Amino acid sequence: MLHKAVQVRLYPTKEQQTQLAQTFGCARWWWNYALNKSIDAYKETGKGLGRSALNALLPALKKAEETEWLADCYSQVLQATTLNLTTAYKNFFDKRAGFPKFKSKHGKQSIQYPQNVKIVEGNVKLPGNIGVVKAKIHRPIEGKIKTCIVVKTPSGKYFVSILTEIEGENPSTTEGKIYGVDLGLKHFAVVSDGEKVSKYDNPKHLAKHEKNLKRKQQKLARKQKGSNSRYKYRKVVAKVYERVSNSRQDFLHKLSYKLVSDSQAVIVENLHVKGMIRNHPYGFATCYNGGNPRNAVAHNLAKAISDVGWGTFTNFLAYKLERKGAKLVEIDRWFPSSKLCSNCFYQMGEMPLNVREWTCPHCGTHHDRDGDAAINIRAEGIRWLKAEGSAVSAVGGEVRPKLGRKSNLRHSPLSTEAHGERRRQP
Questions:
Q1: Fewest Cβ atoms nearer than 10 Å: which of 73, 92, 109, 295?
Q2: Which position among 182, 322, 330, 332 bears the catalytic label?
Q3: What angle do CA 158, 78, 17 make, to 5 degrees?
């Protein structure tokens, strides 16, 4: 079975907007109430409340005079909220995510319909009392509809993400180019296909809107808290952030599609983006300087790292490659891609971040730092793919025979991990 998600813009009527606002409010209140109950139960017993225990609280709440308005909410929305909360707890205890947070009415609002959503004459029919909502479906909805998430953005727009299930097996391809991608800040991506190196500049989306955003945020800060004027102007600021987000998503989608369209595999570094943003001494410096924490990222780079969107780009590559049947390989962040000569494989001892070009003392080859890194990333990815047993055609360039460090084949039917010896941290 294949799963595919399509996001569709909704245009609800005034009455439907009111009904959606009530449903958002019920789901948000139930999330916060259930989260608070789970925290209290854990403090008292050392165990949280499971999905069944939380859902068992709902009938009494719907009958209570103070919370009888919960009965007006579509029951499966509340049950889906319970499922999402228990999943969030499980992800936290499995160390895949942070602790679940309480939800605010001022941020993005969302609800989930686990079933009974239909497409009616080019519009979306939501269960309960909302009915058919006008929609702009820009591509056909294929397969059986599984779940839908309705979202209201801070700028006041409505969207629905429709997840469908399509019958068929996962495709697989061994034809096309193999790309090695070195991600950075000056150049967003430096790409090697074995024959040539291409550079894609960082668009710096946030910097282009920074002055406008600062001016509008200052104007918002001067408005009285709780006033209608402040409430309306929050949408003005939200629209600026939305433009930044849309331009970033557009760039990342186009570049990822360009790489995926003619490739059988894409190789990237498994960067610790969260560590870089937190200015962790083993974040940015170790990824780009072979593990030397003395050259850690400066605080003023955190905003640029957050804006560039490396993690989102990797996720876009992952699902596009999986849909095509190609592979995404994430080589370990400790692999010294920037310090390795791609001609003779000589490894430099020190390579400060300000050194953008260097000459190999062993063979005399002159390297562009980022281009050399992309070539080494590609070679390491091909070596790992062959060691894993995948049939690949290494078009353009030799495969380096040396053993590499821990790497990961992501979002693939053969998703395994080659366990090599990890470089000892200083």
A1: 92
A2: 182
A3: 30
Query: Residue holding tokens 């369209």?
Result: 261
d(CA 266, CA 377): 10
Taking the CA atoms of 25, 30, 36 and 39 in sequence, report the sign of the dihedral they define.
negative
DSSP H helices in 46-170:
51-55, 58-63, 75-93
Catalytic residue among 193, 322, 332, 370: 370
Phi, psi (degrees; rounded to nearest 5) at 118: -130, 155
Strands ordered across the beta sheet of 123-126: 109-113, 144-152, 158-166, 2-11, 131-136, 123-126, 118-120
Closest of 290, 308, 328 to residue 423, by C-alpha: 290
Per-residue pLDDT, averaged over 64-88, amounts to: 94
For residue 269, indicate whether it is catalytic. Answer: yes
- Provide the CB-side half-sphere exposure for 228 (13 A, CA): 0
Residue 40 has pLDDT above 70, yes or no: yes
**Tokens describing residue 217:** 């945020």
Find where tokens 């499980």 sit.
90
CB 412 within 8 A of CB 392: no
Spatial neighbors of 149 by CB under 8 A, at least 6 apart, are 110, 111, 112, 113, 160, 161
Q: Please confirm, yes or no, whether 262 is among the known catalytic residues.
A: no
Q: What angle do CA 218, 220, 224 make, to 5 degrees?
A: 120
At 158, give phi and psi (nearest 5°).
Answer: -115, 135
- For the record, the structure tokens of 286 come out as 């170790």
> pLDDT per residue over 215-258, tens digit each?
999 999 999 998 999 989 999 999 999 999 999 999 999 999 99
Between the two ends of the chain, the Cα-to-Cα distance in Å is 46
Weakest-pLDDT range from 31-45, 317-331, 349-363: 349-363
Question: Mean pLDDT of all residues in the chain?
Answer: 83
Q: Model confidence at 136, in pLDDT bands (50, 70, 90)?
A: very high
The enclosing H or E element of 135 equals: strand 131-136
pLDDT digits (tens, 9 = 90+) for 78-96: 999 999 999 999 999 898 8
Is 40 tagged catalytic?
A: no
DSSP states of 4-51 as a string?
EEEEEEEE--HHHHHHHHHHHHHHHHHHHHHHHHHHHHHHHHS----H
By percentage, how much of the chain surpasses pLDDT 70?
A: 85
φ, ψ for residue 62, nearest 5 deg: -70, -25
CA nearest to 267, candidates 279, 259, 278? 259
The span from the CA of 284 to the CA of 44, in Å, is 41
